[in-house]
Design goal:
heterodimer, A: mainly alpha, disordered N terminus, B: alpha+beta, 7-stranded mixed sheet, 5-stranded antiparallel sheet, 29 helices
Chain lengths: 184, 943
């Protein structure tokens, strides 16, 4: 049995590839559905992301905010609007994709792989709230300091925060799944 | 071919199409479910669940088969064929109940029934191939001849059955016999296709010595002759099945279809030598034309079940099978090419090379379409939203090609698979890619043709009036109230409309003039006993939905701008002797009179006279009638602006035109002193009378049509923006003004010509004909002996630097806009309530769009959103009442489409939106990072 665990048989390898194909394909279909849905989604549909993010931003910045129906969460100080275009859903989708693929690369047992999608979804959701709140808080800071260059700085800052967090997330997933694999 | 037995194919062939079919079905069901009877809902749910069940079972089977590394066997093929065939038969036998006739077809995307067949056909075709591959022994080549024989026998037996047995049954009605016959027919077709494909497979595999040695004998007919014959037959060039330009399966009459068909055939017929230098380009050529073979394979896939019927009905029906045969041969040939190339090149090189070759045709199509889009949008921008500061030079050769293509691809709305002038799939892609899924009306295409190519122009000046003579207004009540806060009168007119006949489905359709400085701010219509308030929506979406609803006799009411101050008002339908109630609210700063259905109504008490005031909202001011009476009347100095017809064929007239201008300059020296001369065709070039204008005119070239409207607009806009103390009197010098191209009158620009709304045409007999800029400028009003040159105008000096010239009509107020300052967006957002300031802001912004049509594309949404916020209707919006939620959902969907799907009502302009970076940008950056990381890793390892 130990031999099988450390050096899998060719047949077992192929089985891994097959489950990778199947789960990877399903994950991509889910991603496409998510992207399609996001294209149609309005502010109300994205409240599951916008509400906690706005609350987190409020918690850190200590700025009041109100919910404007059909528009989003409005922070009167600085006239900031958090709406469907800033929900963090793009980050969530990417983190989910990268997490699933990192898992498929490392995990061996089909049962673990089947658990992968829901686990990653939950983790990516929670993390997206933190990353997005951070991005918005940085943006607010930039806006306050450098209002005249805010548009492109905001874009660069967003890309920087998102990309660096995605890279960290990807390596963390790889490390974590390898650890799991070696433990089980 | 054997690769098709790999279960991984099922993901692509079955799971993806079925998944999209379910999504498509769901999207359609959500729109129409409120309109469906319970039985139809049950059917939708039943078929939807069945499909979802198939998807789950099929997916599970795929997964297990992949895991167990099993190839697909004949059981799989047989079961999938039987299950999906029975599903399709059952589905189509209930088609009428699934989409009842009561459901308007425009509510359902495309031809939904056709989609069901199209999306499931790959599974059926694959099942058939699996069956064939499992039941065919390639080592027994004699099966090929036998299979051909069976394939021929099936239609023969069916023919005899139809001729001999069926007549004996005539008159007898046994339960279920019809369905049994349908099932028999379908399975006979499947058996026919099975034997045919098997025969082709064995033949193409060169298993038989005879076919191998004499392969050109069968390859030339299948790969060259039959495709050409099929195209010619489809396009009506041979036989009388269709007429040219209206093919049976689509319009494949373009020469490129024939050229590629021949090229494809030649490439497939060329021998396969062992020389790699020769074989490589040959294989790449075959890969390139495979896109063509694949395209026709998919186009004809849904029609394969009809092939036996087509063969029985017409001998030439066998040509329907050509794409299938070609596909089998082409696949087999490519397979052999890949095996050969792998001997000489690495696998990593072979597949990308063939892949790139395969993409050549789609890329050419894509590039062509992208170019068409650019050409078309540039021409449309020039005609409808020109930038008067920019000089245009549109490539006429390319535009001509684009317009030709556009006519071919244009959706005629018959929605039929057969006898269409569209190219299957490609037309839909073209509509999406070039036209953003909207259509370009015939009149717009005609206008482009006339402007750039001097084609005959058909003036579209008549409004189709579908009003019933039996429906008339039987009561009208006026209710006016002054809103102190909004500084306006709010007046409702409540109408009672009656159908005085016993005929149903009558329509009330009228046009009335909206008095200057008044706006429509609300609307209602009673639907049964329910008072439905109007929805203010995007005008194109509203008129589209109204026309669709009107076709199915539901209850809409519509209120919209026809022209600058002409309002169209329609209510439909009126049942036998029905009386309907409706009402319109107007916003107006001063009491006014409105003429509606020949009745003059007083809105607001006439005795109320406002004190003279100028109501300023920033860069726009409303001067009320009392204020205007205090202004000075002055007379500005006029000058001639000669517009010389430079359209095709006018070079020969130049001498005559010059002498006409010289005569005028002598007659009116004052007007000629600083006159301007324009040479007008599709474009306009100008010179001054102080230059050597005669030589200049002689050097001009005549080309295209006489786009007089654009010329007039350009003159008035440029003059207005200069705020000159002189004003132009346009004189058109043309031998044939009937050829002048007008899209509409210049009434939206009336504020730019406060002195007079007349321009003149000097005809061949040196006679002056007066034309109105405000109404049908293409028609002469009358002939006059001389030009009127004295016109009064009011002068308002807002400040020492700012003077405005206002129409001398002190009975009504005027809105004056400072065009030099920043305007529009900010003003609109500051004034978004139902008030005078909002009305002034909207009018000011609308004027800005008229003066700068090039800003229209980027700013029309700003105006529309302001309409939505204030409830005030503008030429971009319309009030509509729809009957039910389904219509409302469709209206909003169409509106989103018209607004490009991106429009959301924003808060203020300076709101800081915390938008996140785009998905693909992030994905690209991440992939770039991974690539860099791997590269660094490889570099480190190599050291």
């Amino acid at each position: 049995m130990n031999v099988l665990k450390t050096s899998p048989l060719p047949n077992q390898l192929r089985l891994d590839e097959f489950s990778n194909l199947w789960i990877g394909g399903f994950a991509i279909i889910l991603l496409l559905v998510g992207k399609f849905w996001y294209g149609q989604a309005d502010t109300e549909a994205l409240l599951f992301l916008l509400r906690p993010v706005s609350w987190l931003v409020h918690l850190v910045s200590n700025q009041p905010y109100t919910f404007v129906p059909e528009q989003g969460f409005h922070f009167p100080n600085g006239n900031i609007l958090i709406n469907s275009s800033c929900s963090g859903f793009n980050w969530l989708l990417l983190a989910y994709l990268l997490g699933v693929f990192a898992g498929l690369q490392s995990l061996r047992r089909p049962f673990h792989k089947m658990l992968l999608i829901p686990t990653i979804l939950i983790a990516a959701y929670l993390l997206s709230l933190i990353v997005n709140s951070m991005r918005i808080l940085f943006s607010i800071f930039i806006l306050e300091q450098l209002a005249q260059h805010a548009t492109w700085l905001h874009l660069i800052e967003g890309a920087f925060v998102y990309l660096s967090s995605l890279i960290l997330w990807y390596f963390a997933c790889q490390y974590f799944f390898k650890k799991i694999n070696s433990l089980l | 071919m054997k690769t098709l037995l790999n279960p991984r194919w099922l993901i692509l062939i079955n799971q993806v199409p079925v998944f999209f079919l379910i999504i498509l079905g769901l999207a359609n069901y959500r729109i129409i479910d409120s309109q469906l009877e319970p039985y139809s809902i049950q059917l939708w749910q039943l078929f939807g669940l069945a499909l979802a069940g198939f998807l789950i079972i099929h997916s599970a089977f795929t997964w297990v088969a992949i895991r167990q590394q099993k190839k697909l066997n004949s059981w799989y093929g047989a079961i999938s064929i039987i299950v999906y065939t029975l599903f399709l038969i059952t589905y189509y036998s209930h088609a009428e109940e699934i989409l009842p006739r009561a459901i308007p077809r425009w509510m359902v995307a495309g031809e939904f029934h056709a989609y069901v067949g199209t999306f499931l056909m790959p599974t059926l075709a694959h099942g058939l191939l699996v069956l064939m591959l499992n039941w065919t022994d390639p080592e027994r080549p004699q099966q090929a001849g036998r299979s051909f024989l069976y394939a021929l026998l099936i239609p023969g037996v069916l023919y005899l059955f139809a001729q001999i047995i069926l007549p004996l049954w005539r008159g007898a009605s046994w339960p279920g016999v019809e369905r049994a016959l349908v099932i028999l027919m379908v399975f006979a077709t499947i058996a026919f296709l099975f034997f045919l494909v098997r025969a082709l497979y064995l033949t193409a595999s060169r298993r038989t010595i005879f076919f191998e040695k004499k392969q050109l004998l069968w390859k030339i007919p299948i790969t060259i002759l039959f495709p050409i014959l099929g195209l010619a037959l489809n396009n009506g060039f041979i036989g009388d099945l269709s007429r040219p330009g209206n093919g049976i399966f689509g319009d494949f009459s373009a020469p490129s279809f024939y050229i590629i068909a021949i090229l494809n055939g030649i490439l497939l017929c060329l021998p396969n030598p062992e020389n790699k230098l020769y074989r490589l380009p040959l294989s790449l050529g075959r890969a390139a034309t495979f896109a063509y073979t694949l395209y026709f394979f998919f186009v004809f896939l849904p029609f394969l079940p009809l092939s036996v019927i087509a063969i029985l009905a017409l001998g030439t029906g066998f040509l329907m099978l050509t794409p299938l045969a070609l596909f089998v041969i082409h696949m087999d040939q490519l397979n052999k090419d890949v095996i050969f190339l792998k001997k000489y090149y690495k696998q990593k090189v072979v597949y990308p090379m063939l892949g790139i070759a395969f993409l050549i045709l789609p890329t050419i199509i894509q590039v062509n379409y992208a170019q068409d889009r650019q050409n078309l949008h540039e021409a449309l921008d020039y005609v409808y939203n020109p930038d008067y500061q920019k000089s245009y030079n549109i490539n006429k050769t390319e535009l001509s090609r684009t317009l030709h293509f556009l006519r071919k691809h244009k959706d005629r709305g018959n929605g039929s698979f057969f006898f269409s002038n569209q190219i299957p799939y490609l037309s839909a892609y073209y509509n999406w890619m070039v036209l953003d899924n909207l259509t370009l009306s015939d009149s717009k295409i005609n206008r482009l043709d006339a402007i750039f190519f001097d084609a005959p122009f058909f003036q579209n000046s008549t409004q189709v009036n579908s009003s019933s003579p039996f429906v008339e207004m039987t009561d009208i009540q006026v209710e006016s109230k002054y809103d102190e806060q909004a500084k306006v009168w709010r007046s409702w007119i409540h109408l009672e409309l009656s159908n005085n006949s016993e005929q149903s489905f009558q329509e009330f359709n009228t046009v009335f003039t909206l008095p200057e400085n008044s706006w429509i701010s609300d609307y209602y219509l009673y639907v049964g006993d329910r008072k439905e308030m109007g929805l203010l929506t995007e005008k194109r979406a509203a008129t589209w939905i109204f026309n669709q609803i009107r076709r199915v006799n539901r209850d809409p009411g519509l209120l919209y701008y026809l022209e600058a101050n002409k309002i169209g008002f329609r209510v439909f339908p009126f049942a036998d002797s029905e009386v309907r109630k409706t009402g319109i609210e107007f916003l107006h700063p001063e009491p006014m009179q409105l003429t509606f259905e020949d009745q003059t109504l007083q809105l607001g008490p006439p005795e109320v006279v406002a004190t003279a005031s100028a109501y300023d909202v920033g860069m726009a001011t409303y001067l009320n009638s009392s204020f205007k009476q205090t202004l000075d009347t002055i007379y500005r100095k006029p000058y001639f602006h000669f517009i010389v017809d430079g359209s095709a064929g006018n070079s020969s007239q130049v001498s005559k035109y010059i002498s006409q201008i010289e005569t005028l300059l002598e007659q009116y020296p004052d007007l000629g002193a600083q006159a301007q001369v324009s040479w007008t065709n599709a474009y306009q070039t100008d010179t001054s009378i102080e230059q050597d204008w005669k030589d200049w005119l002689r050097q001009q070239t005549d080309d295209g049509g006489f786009f007089l409207e654009q010329s007039l607009r350009s003159i008035f806009i440029q003059h207005y923006q200069a705020q000159s103390q002189r004003y132009p009197i346009p004189v058109v010098i043309s031998a044939d003004i009937d050829k002048a191209i007008f899209n509409q009158s210049l009434d939206e620009l009336a504020f730019t010509f406060p002195e007079t709304d007349l321009f003149y045409h000097l005809d061949q007999n040196d006679q002056f004909n007066q034309h109105s800029l405000l109404s049908k400028p293409w028609n002469a009003i009358n002939s006059v002996p001389q030009i009127e040159t004295k016109h009064p105008v009011l002068l308002w000096e807002k400040s020492t630097q700012e003077s405005f010239y206002i129409k001398s009509d002190p009975s009504v107020g005027s809105i004056v806009v400072d065009q030099s300052g920043p305007q529009g967006t900010e003003l609109l957002q500051e004034n978004n309530a139902k008030s005078l300031s909002a009305a002034i802001a909207q009018t000011a912004h609308w004027q800005k769009l008229q003066l700068n049509p090039n800003l229209y594309e980027q700013e029309w949404l700003v105006q529309l959103k302001a309409n939505f916020a204030s409830g005030l209707m503008s030429p971009l919006s319309a009030y509509i009442v729809v009957e039910n939620e389904a219509q409302k959902a469709m209206l909003l969907k169409k509106q989103a489409q018209a607004m490009d799907g991106n429009a959301r009502l924003d808060l203020e302009e300076d709101v800081n939106n915390m938008s996140e970076p785009g998905f693909f940008l992030l994905l690209g950056l991440f992939l770039l990072f991974l690539w860099y990381k791997n590269k660094s890793l490889v570099a480190t390892n190599s050291h």
